[in-house]
Amino acid sequence: MSVEKKFNIAPVNIDIENKKVLPSFWLTKISYFNNGNNFFIVDNDQQKKVIEELYGKPELTYMVWDSPILVYSHSINIYDGDIEGSANVVKSDFKVGDNNQICNAGVQGMVAYGPYKTLGRGWYSLKINAHGDQYEALIFSYITGKKIKMSENKYKNGSYIFEINEDMPSAEIQLFAQKDSNVCFESYSLQHIK
Question: Superkingdom of this entry's organism (predicted)?
Answer without folding.
Answer: Bacteria
